[in-house]
Structures are given as structure tokens and as C-alpha cells.
Structure to design on (392 residues):
């Protein structure tokens, strides 16, 4: 596929996946990057206008572009140190796999490193982004639990620092979208309220929080849980822990890494049974090794080895992010878990858009929304991707 621009085009003979229905034989019309109209051939033929290029979907499924709220990198680059060329490479790689919007996700690092990332990402966001759009930053850490650090560097773990946040928000308004922390840390509840007050989604992760502590955090504004089950206090029938709170508190949206390595299929089924498809978000947690051959890599200064596509820390064997793409997550959850494609699409597009407050213009196929589109064949292979109406 090559980058190109279609100012006016009409997709016909498509199985169109929207929020509230599946149109088995439909059409979708785009003008200047915006969806103009959607129709059903069973109640009327597609419009005929020679000014619109025709794209024949040949019965394929047309979905809204995927939004990945938890991704560290790909194509050999990591957001923590990627320059403009690296940011372009990451966004291009993931767009080839259906992602049209993403959050540049950090690792636990020093204040200076995190500030430098905000500077690079905010600058990139102000320039033309022809591939997957950087929608902001997800700070994963550094205010996490050392007990559940996972693949995070413990040298930089600190308690919440309210003054850091105020400085970041003042200098980079609107760039930080999510911050993940351990709610049991000293000062964390007040910090969660501070995040919510700035319109940033407070998230729990890498945490040893009890059930009651998560409930108290939700009272202060906690609304998100990163990679549910992974790097968090497990469920016990007398102390349900972080996992029990995430499963049962309707205020919290739970991410899941659906790659067959991070969570057993039964765990994903339990998450969906407890929360429903409206309260679950598919993420990749992809690191620099995504899209690259097996070998040695680095994650936040920690050595990583990837074998057979699975990345692990060399010293502990802990999973070190993933090499997942969003389309692979869709395939896994449809084929292995038995989730309908429409529900999988919702978890990959509309739910993250809503969590970020961006569902007014993206995350669904509807007139007036951005033409961020993914066309799949019957084998769930990508046939074509459009970002704001631009064909890749």
C-alpha cells in the first residue's frame, strides 16, 4: 500500500460494522476525510456520482480504525527515545495493522526523560501526521509499586509528585491523556483527584492495592485499569484485590492484552462476562520489537530477549510488553474467545475513543465522523486502511 489521498470516495459492497448495527450489504461515502453518508443496499442502491471514486469492498468488513491507548513502540523504535523519524516509523508500522489513533505510552523513567518525551510528542502532534495519529501521551508510571513493577525500571519508581503534574499540564496542555499509578502509594488518592481535575484519565496498574483501596480511588476519579490481571494484586475470595475491584466496579474500564501469552482465554472470558464489551478495551502494550525479528532489545534501560515473537526481560523472565498489533488482537479475541466482530470492533475503537473523550469525531462509523477506516476480508486480513480519508 502507498500513501495517497482520496478526497471523495464511495465504498460499496461492504459489510459495515457500526455501533448499533451490522449492515450486511452496505455503502459508505466519504468527502474530505469525513464520512458523509452510510446506506444499506437492501433498501436502496448506493448513490451514483462520477465525482466519487468507487472502492469495491467485495463483501469485506468495514470497521472504524483502531485506537491503541497503551503502546510503547514498534518497528525497532520506542517512544521513550524516538526522534521525529522514529515517531513516524512507529505510527506507520501500527497504521499498517489498522491503528489510526494511539497514545505514546511511557515507561517508568526520570522526570527529565518524561518531560523530554512530552516535548517530542507535542511537537510531532503539531505537524502533519500521515499515518496513525498520536492523540497524546499515556504515562505508565513512575508512581507504581515496586512489588508489581513487571518490566518497569525500579530505579525510577517514586511516590506521586503533584508539582510535576502541574508543571507538565501548564507546559503541555491537553497532551497527557492517561496516567497509570499504584493507588496505594503515599498521596495517590489526592493525586488521582488532581489528574481527574485536569481531565486526565486516572488509571491503576503495577499495583498492590486492595479491593477497598481501588474502590476509594474510584471515588476520587479512577476510571481505567492497564493490562487487567497483569502486574496487579490478584483475586482472592476473602480479599478480592485489584483484580476483583476491576472486575466488579462499573466505573472502571479494563484493558486487556489479547495475545495468548499475557492472559489465559478463560481470564478474558471472565473479564467480558463481568464487565461486558462496553467496559473492555483492547490494547497491544507493544514494544520496539513489534514487527522486528527475534533478538535482543531494550525496554526502559532493561535488556530484553525476544524469542518466537514473545519478549521477556533477560534477568527475570517477566513478559516485557508485547509484539502484538491491534488487528492481531482482533483476530485472537474473535477466533479464540468467540467474540462477535462487532463487539471486538467496539473494544478496539469506540470504547477507547469514549475513554479519551474523543468519540464525538472518531471511534465509530457514522456521518460526520472522521473517515478512519479498516477494510477486512473474510479471514480478518487487512485489505485497506484509511486515516482521515487518506488511503495507506
Amino acid at each position: 500500500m502507498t500513501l495517497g489521498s482520496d478526497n471523495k470516495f464511495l465504498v460499496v459492497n461492504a459489510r459495515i460494522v457500526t455501533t448499533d448495527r451490522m449492515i450486511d450489504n452496505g455503502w459508505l461515502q466519504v468527502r474530505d476525510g469525513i464520512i458523509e453518508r452510510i446506506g444499506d443496499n437492501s433498501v436502496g442502491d448506493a448513490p451514483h456520482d462520477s465525482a466519487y471514486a468507487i472502492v469495491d469492498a467485495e463483501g469485506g468488513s468495514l470497521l472504524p480504525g483502531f485506537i491503541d491507548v497503551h503502546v510503547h513502540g514498534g518497528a525497532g523504535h520506542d517512544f521513550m527515545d524516538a526522534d521525529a523519524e522514529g515517531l513516524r516509523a512507529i505510527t506507520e508500522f501500527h497504521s499498517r495493522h489498522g491503528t489510526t489513533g494511539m497514545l505514546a505510552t511511557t515507561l517508568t523513567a526520570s522526570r527529565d526523560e518524561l518531560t523530554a518525551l512530552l516535548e517530542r510528542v507535542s511537537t510531532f502532534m503539531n505537524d502533519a501526521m500521515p499515518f496513525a495519529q498520536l492523540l497524546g501521551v499515556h504515562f505508565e508510571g513512575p508512581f507504581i509499586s515496586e512489588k508489581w513493577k513487571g518490566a518497569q525500571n525500579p530505579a525510577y519508581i517514586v511516590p506521586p509528585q503533584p508539582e510535576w503534574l502541574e508543571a507538565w499540564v501548564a507546559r503541555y496542555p491537553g497532551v497527557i491523556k492517561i496516567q497509570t499509578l499504584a493507588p496505594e502509594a503515599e498521596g495517590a488518592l489526592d493525586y488521582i483527584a488532581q489528574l481527574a481535575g485536569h481531565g486526565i484519565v486516572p488509571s491503576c496498574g503495577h499495583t498492590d492495592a486492595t479491593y477497598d483501596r481501588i474502590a476509594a480511588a474510584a471515588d476520587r476519579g479512577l476510571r481505567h485499569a492497564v493490562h487487567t490481571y497483569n502486574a496487579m494484586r490478584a483475586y482472592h475470595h476473602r480479599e478480592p484485590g485489584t483484580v476483583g475491584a476491576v472486575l466488579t466496579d462499573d466505573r472502571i474500564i479494563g484493558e486487556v492484552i489479547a495475545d495468548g501469552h499475557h492472559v489465559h482465554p478463560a481470564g478474558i472470558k471472565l473479564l467480558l462476562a463481568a464487565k461486558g464489551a462496553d467496559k473492555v478495551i483492547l490494547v497491544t502494550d507493544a514494544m520496539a520489537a513489534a514487527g522486528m525479528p527475534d533478538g535482543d532489545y531494550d525496554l526502559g534501560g532493561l535488556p530484553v530477549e525476544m524469542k518466537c515473537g514473545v519478549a521477556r526481560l533477560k534477568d527475570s523472565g517477566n513478559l516485557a510488553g508485547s509484539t502484538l498489533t491491534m488487528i492481531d488482537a482482533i483476530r485472537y479475541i474473535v477466533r479464540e474467545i468467540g467474540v462477535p466482530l462487532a463487539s471486538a470492533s467496539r473494544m478496539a475503537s469506540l470504547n477507547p475513543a469514549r475513554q479519551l473523550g474523543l468519540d464525538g469525531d472518531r471511534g465509530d462509523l457514522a456521518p460526520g465522523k472522521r473517515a478512519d477506516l479498516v477494510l477486512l476480508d473474510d479471514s480478518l486480513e487487512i485489505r485497506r486502511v484509511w486515516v482521515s480519508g487518506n488511503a495507506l
Remarks:
- Residues 111-125 form the longest helix (15 residues).
- The chain has two domains: 4-63+366-391, 66-355.
- The two ends are 6 Å apart (CA to CA).
- The CA atoms of residues 36 and 367 lie 5 Å apart.
